[in-house]
Amino acid sequence: MSHSSSEEGGLSQAAPNVPNTRELLDNPTQSVATPRDQVPPTVDEASPSSTSSFEMIDMESGPAPYQEVQPHWFFCRRADDNASWLPFSRKDSDKLENASHAVGDQEDEVVIAVEGERYDVHVKDRKRYAVYWEQGPTEVRRCTWFYKGNKDTRFMPYPEDFSKRLEEAFMISVTLNEWKRKLEFPNGETVILHNPKLMMQYQPIGLQDEWVSSPSEQTRPGTVKRGVNNIPVEIPDGEPEKVDHLVFMVHGIGPACDLRFRSIIQCVNDFRSASLSLLTSHYKRAEQDGLIGRVEFLPVNWHSALHGDATGVDEDIQRITLPSISRLRHFTNDTLLDLFFYNSPTYCQTIVDTVASEINMLHTLFRKRHSDFNGAVSVVGHSLGSLILFDLLTNQRNGSRKAKEAVPCGEPLDLNGDTLQQTLSRLGLQQYLDTLQAENVDLESLALCQDGDLKDLGIPLGPRKKILDYVQKKCLSQAFKTGAVHLPEGLQAPPQMTSNSDGNQSTGFTMQQSQFHRAQSVTSAVDYEYFDVGIGQTNGGIAKGQVSIDYPQLAFHPQTFFAFGSPIGMFLTVRGLKQIDPNYSFPTCKSFYNIYHPYDPVAYRLEPMIVTDVDLEPMLIPHHKGRKRMHLELKDSFTRMSMDLKNNVLGSLRTAWQSFSRIPVAALPPVDEGNATTERDLHETQGVCDEAESSGSAEQTEQPEIKVGMLNGGRRIDYVLQEKPIESFNEYLFAIQSHLCYWESEDTALLLLKEIYDKLGVAMEQPQQ
Which sequence ranges are marked TM in the entry (predicted)? Predict the structure, then answer.
């Protein structure tokens, strides 16, 4: 297979152009020269200092026998028009090497799964394809020879065809013990094999500066190395094949997830790498004994679907965007507007549909590729992504019955005697009357239509939701009249709306309206059009104020929900929810953790909404090295010192009062009322000292564990990270960074691992200091 220097991979700047194999075979004398050939003056005069260094190498020992170079497979990664070549793990490289030998002249493509089966490599085409997300194919090479220029920071692999030529020339030189063999590139660059340990690449004369007269400055040779073992590169050990747990990670607003403007894919890759490192350090014995494998983290991307061509929202927003401060407005349209989109019924439906369908698709694909997987699944949401998951989990069904069974509409629909035209006019959708009448759709058949049916008729998403929501409400209202739907047990109706003798109506709803609204909240989210009464719903009032959309169902029951830097508490409060029922839990998920950085401006707590009568401090997440950060330890030490000083002063004062109260009283006159008062005051003062000391000591003791509702099975929910020492100097400077720190936080990753493996019965080991 031929490669050129202009191919993807960034070699165009690191290595010269390479002829194809046919050209090499047609002109063998041009490409390889023996030491008897005359080396061009440019090469001979290139760097005398380098020539002198040749003499320092001990060549007196006999030539070592030729050994074939050991190849290693690399893949290309592009970022901002810069290319870097990264090695596969040794395990993956061996699999690719064995497959390349097995391919031979076969016409069929051979596909090898690598990197935890998140990528597939097509061996014949030398391409690497992502499995779980959209990403362009990247080039793959079987690498044996490497090159680094003066200004390069790392070695770049030569194309495979030129590496083969270099290896043949090296074999001849070693076998015959004849060196200074040179290979020329079509553009004039030359590689010279001076000896087994020194091989250089020189630029042609045309690329040199004409005014440079010093021979040592005319060319700056680059370094050539043979074999991956001779270059400074870190080869990963690879990942365990066994997967213990699967985690889906949903991003927040915008396409970028950190200050380096990286995508959710890159950030999840970092989080996965951190978890693998922590498994090696904190679960070393379990890993050596084969008790654990690894945790797989997969990204869930919904931003591209919202801002893609399917919705056309970007084009609509761009038409009304002012031309000034274009970069700032572009950032606002691409990032901050996601918050408003989620509060829109139309685009909120698109977002939750995308998140749910993407998670279900990834789950199905993962189970297909890992047929032996029998572990649990958890979900992680960052920023707005945590709110999306919160609303999704709130509206999941536990499988006891389907939503349609709770909203029967078997009888012919009676919309107060309205016709189809009157109904559409009331909804402001009379322009779709002809479309429905063309398909002979009347009110009764309209009640039987699903979203897909209306979509097939060409009705947009917004009007479809209006029609379905209106029909659903009328079906439920009619079901109450016929007795097909009853109030759930324990729900109380609000006061009826009655008229007094003066004709004035009192506050509240009628019994029928109340039952209608209550039953609706049991089966779907609450519409803004209606007033949700109380908190005593089966979902604990969580659905209060949510946009009325059809929440899709996940294909599995999540074990744990982790929220990073989450605004859930703020959104629930803005929706009008003052308190979460302590008995409430997600229908299909029994564990929930709210993880945040203390300086995160987007994060809010949740425990104060559950336990309102106790002021609970959040749980401090331990440092991954098994201790508090130094500045926090110093702060605690100063607090203890001040407390000890306070106790010592109070103790001294108590001793002084006791000494004073023990003065001999035999010679004193009988105690009168005034003296009794004085003695009583002394005892009261002594009691105050004792009480103060006891209260001071009580402050040092830890608070007993308090049961915080059922969202996390009675355990604590709010967990706060420890800020770094530099962050404590000015919390405002690091506010934005604090909201984006979770992807690289080892403390956060360790908390997830501990929660996952504790439920598997595998205890975490204390790291060695």
Answer: none
The radius of gyration of the chain's CA atoms, rounded to the nearest angstrom, is: 37
Q: How many residues comprise the chain?
A: 769
6 vs 112 pLDDT, higher one: 112
Catalytic residues: 383
Question: How do beta strands 198-202 and 222-226 pair?
Answer: antiparallel
Could you read off the pLDDT of 531-573 as tens digits, one per residue?
332 233 445 556 666 667 889 999 999 999 999 999 999 999 9
In sequence order, the 6+-apart residues with CB closer than 8 A to the CB of 493 are 487, 511, 514, 515, 518
- Pinpoint the alpha helices (H) of 1-47: 11-14, 21-26, 28-31, 41-44
Q: At what angle do helices 461-482 and 511-523 cross, to 10 degrees?
A: 120
Three-point CA angle 533, 535, 538, nearest 5°: 105
Q: What is the β-pairing status of strands 243-250 and 119-122?
A: unpaired
Distance CA 757, CA 68 (A): 45
- Cβ distance 534 to 549 under 8 Å? no
Helix (H) or strand (E) holding 139: strand 138-143
Q: Give me the phi and psi of 78, to 5 degrees please.
A: -105, 140
Query: Tokens representing 252?
Result: 């927040």
CA distance 159 to 141: 7
pLDDT computed for residue 645 by the predictor? 63
Contacts for 690 with CB less than 8 Å, ≥ 6 apart: 654
CA dist 173 and 275 (Å) reads 47
**b/e map 313-331, b = 16+ CB within 10 Å:** bbeebeeeeeeeeeeeeee
Looking at residue 188, its pLDDT comes to 77
* 406-445 tens-digit pLDDT: 344 444 555 555 788 888 888 888 888 888 888 888 877 7
pTM: 0.67
617 CB contacts (<8 Å, ≥6 apart)?
none
Q: Which residues pair with 32 in a beta bridge?
A: 183
